[in-house]
Amino acid sequence: MWTLADIAKHIGATVQGDALYEVSSIATLQSGQSGQLSFLSNKKYKKYLADTHAGAVIVSEDMAPYVPQHALIVADPYVAYAKAAALLHPVKLAPEGVHPSASIASDSIVHPSASIAAQVVIASGVSIAEGVVIGPGCVILDNVSIGESTRLTANITLCEGVKIGKRGIIHPGVVIGADGFGIANDKGKWINVPQVGSVLIGDDVDIGANTTIDRGAIDDTTIADGVKLDNQIQIGHNVVIGENTVIAGCVGIAGSTVVGKNCVIGGGAGVSGHLQIADGVMLTGMTMVTKSIKQAGSYSSGIPSEDTHKWHKNVIRYRQMDKLIERVKQLENSTKSE
Amino acid sequence: MWTLADIAKHIGATVQGDALYEVSSIATLQSGQSGQLSFLSNKKYKKYLADTHAGAVIVSEDMAPYVPQHALIVADPYVAYAKAAALLHPVKLAPEGVHPSASIASDSIVHPSASIAAQVVIASGVSIAEGVVIGPGCVILDNVSIGESTRLTANITLCEGVKIGKRGIIHPGVVIGADGFGIANDKGKWINVPQVGSVLIGDDVDIGANTTIDRGAIDDTTIADGVKLDNQIQIGHNVVIGENTVIAGCVGIAGSTVVGKNCVIGGGAGVSGHLQIADGVMLTGMTMVTKSIKQAGSYSSGIPSEDTHKWHKNVIRYRQMDKLIERVKQLENSTKSE
Amino acid sequence: MWTLADIAKHIGATVQGDALYEVSSIATLQSGQSGQLSFLSNKKYKKYLADTHAGAVIVSEDMAPYVPQHALIVADPYVAYAKAAALLHPVKLAPEGVHPSASIASDSIVHPSASIAAQVVIASGVSIAEGVVIGPGCVILDNVSIGESTRLTANITLCEGVKIGKRGIIHPGVVIGADGFGIANDKGKWINVPQVGSVLIGDDVDIGANTTIDRGAIDDTTIADGVKLDNQIQIGHNVVIGENTVIAGCVGIAGSTVVGKNCVIGGGAGVSGHLQIADGVMLTGMTMVTKSIKQAGSYSSGIPSEDTHKWHKNVIRYRQMDKLIERVKQLENSTKSE
């Protein structure tokens, strides 16, 4: 239980109502009950504010008059909510030390404060820093290093030599440092090009479930500080992702492409290899990028869904544009000729 | 070995030929031999019927005259085949009890009839019902519950508090309940929004290999009874999937979208967040949905492949449509003006 | 350390400069130092050649005059580099024998020269050939067979009866032989169609991280010799992939489609089910294939990204093509009528 006063202090809010009122958990405006803390960030949910039963609501100043019970008034309700939620729902502490079923090479260094769960495998020459959590079934191959307070949930694979920064969160099924897709055609047969680079992951990087980041061919694949990756993203060898860039689920970025800082890439987008994407670029969902993007701004492609019958018709029209242009040309000539 | 009489009884068929004829396995019309059971469902394979060596064939009444050997006559050959195949090729029973290499928290409840394979990890407060099968390498985190007769193949991760219904099948590499992709921008730095919801999976739900279903931000992500998910699907936080909806491989559904009942979503389709998709909606493969769909029916997008040279040309035409419309407008004016 | 003479002999090169000069590792032209070997394959990197500090460079004959230090002259520098890199950076040998934490069914046959790592599970009736490496956390289910010298990195799942050829490389998170997506609608409820086929993988096949290949419904899913698959590819049941075909990341191929030999499929492409793709077909990235392709050649679809504002406009234009064609028709009539 936290008093609104305590939470206000933590998130930098002004209390409207009883500062000693206590809340124990987070809820939406619709589901909130007394003893719960809710928030209003997106104005389109304002309609739920008047009738909410949540004991307290985080709002911006202009919404405060409409809060039925107690309010915490802040400049940015969503950020404040994130911080309050972290206070009310702290990450469960993992037990320090090594589970007896874990298998750890004798020459690897694991900080005594780290938590190594059941069925974990830590190979040779690995270095695990203070406060790191390695969840069940993770496999850490030779010479990997993991920085302070980074957490691996479960069933994650870190391949040889991968370096992970501090305070990161890596979700289940992630594979970092598998061989990049490098092949050479030797008289009709494909031979592998050894992938001798590695992967460098900065600090405060989150990586979503089943995302894959390949090791570099010669130099390293690099993910800068503060990057947030959603699920099922594929990042090819020697890609560089700039600071604080955010990538949504199911995105593919092909080899050697450099993505700038503070970019936002929508779900299902695809970026070809060997391109440069400037800082501050936004790609909407399912956008197909085949050329470098040199200026900040929003870019899109793809045609949204329509009735399947209309779609068939439009696809045919699309293929007839050539003919149409011909017809217009003839009309222009015939009208001129008069 | 099963007699046609026994199979007919099980699938509700009429036998044409020797009811005591015995079959031991399923085969296609082309590969079938004596002692094998085949079927004809898609009429385009009718051409293989006359020459099949399969000892017996499941067919609809109109096809029965063309069956060279014995026939099982039913209304729906594909459904009947599915049931007969399940009879001839039953799921191998997993041994009851816990493999010695599994690691199970003392406060978790595992029904004695459940099968817990090698290298499994079951954390604290977990509840495993009657007849559940947990395959090798699965990781079940705190407070997960799994309903009767649900089977997890191998290397699956169920995160904290996830609830799975009865008779489900979950394939390798699936991750259920990883954190949703919730971030807030705090003066240029992204901070995580704690994901305190969970995932509720109904009864008779199948989930394909390497599919990921994220936990809710506040409320739960929900997959209703009878939903069938193929491989490598990404389902964002707080998505709701209605009863008996079927989703093919590589589909991405962004956060808070509600998909109705009895929908069929084709492979590689993408659905934006915070949308409503009505009951009975069909999306063809690779369709891009950016707005809610309020009526049942089939929807599509995307332009199918063509020769790369033509494609280049059409893309240029597409970008010139503006100019073309200008030219047509001028023509209209010039003809009017006469 | 290798002398240029030794490397020249291995890759079939002519030495320009000191044949006894020694190199120990691979580097790019930009990062190369003395004692390192670099290469120039793509002419667009020629600008870096003059200033490289790499002790030796693999080049084609025409580039040899511009190499500042020693050169290895070959017909195909990229292939030669691949072979030299394999010489300088050999795959680390895995220890022979079985790790004590691995769990292996008594009736499975593991060649004494094979390497079985920690936390591996090998079920019943499995056959592991000479020189096979099974990395940590892999799960090999009943009756799988793996051919000579094939390497599984970590956390891989091979399901019942899957057959893998020789000299393959399988990366983490791969799932081979999960049930194909076969369902039948029994009066409104979906029932599973038992998937009784398996998966056959040829020799020299590489499979990227988190790629999934489903087992066949009746016959087997088949991947021919020399196929190279990148990460996060989905291959449906009964698909056949021809020899030496290369598939980039995030591609989906739906059930029963047959892809020819020597095809190259770009990242994010999608191919519908039950199609035939001829030998020697190339698909550019994100191409959507809905019909069989009968002739070798390059095929494409999708419209590349543009400024979001222009995109909105073009999508509207696209939907108005019908009207435009109407207007052109009227103009044609009105001009005729004069």
Report on this structure:
The structure is a homotrimer of 338-residue chains. Chain A is of the alpha/beta class and 338 residues long. Chain A has three domains: 2-88, MurE/MurF, N-terminal domain (Udp-n-acetylmuramoylalanyl-d-glutamate--2,6- Diaminopimelate Ligase, Chain: A, domain 1); 97-299, 3 Solenoid (UDP N-Acetylglucosamine Acyltransferase, domain 1); 311-337. Chain A has four helices and 40 strands. In chain A, the strands form six sheets. Chain A has an eleven-stranded parallel sheet, with no helix packed on it. A ten-stranded parallel sheet of chain A has the order 9-12-15-18-21-26-29-32-35-38, with no helix packed on it. Chain A has a nine-stranded parallel sheet with strand order 10-13-16-19-24-27-30-33-36, with no helix packed on it. Chain A is flat and about 85 Å long. The termini of chain A are far apart. The mean pLDDT of chain A is 96. Chains in contact: A-B, A-C, B-C. β39 of chain A pairs antiparallel with β40 of chain C.
| Strand runs of chain A, count | 40
Query: Whole-number radius of gyration of chain A?
Result: 26 Å
Determine the CATH topology of the largest domain in chain A: UDP N-Acetylglucosamine Acyltransferase, domain 1
Any idea how many domains of chain A? 3
Task: Name the average pLDDT of chain A.
Answer: 96
Helix residue percentage of chain A: 10-25%
Between the first and last Cα atoms of chain A, what is the distance in angstroms?
87 Å
Please name the CATH architecture of the largest domain in chain A: 3 Solenoid
* CATH homologous superfamily descriptor of the largest domain in chain A: Hexapeptide repeat proteins
Oligomer: homotrimer
Biggest β-sheet: strands ordered side by side in the sheet of chain A: 8-11-14-17-20-25-28-31-34-37-39
User: Which shape of chain A, going by the Cα principal axes?
Assistant: flat
> Which structural category do the helix and sheet elements of chain A fall into?
alpha/beta
Q: Give a short account of the largest sheet of chain A.
A: 11 strands, parallel
- Total helices of chain A: the number is 4
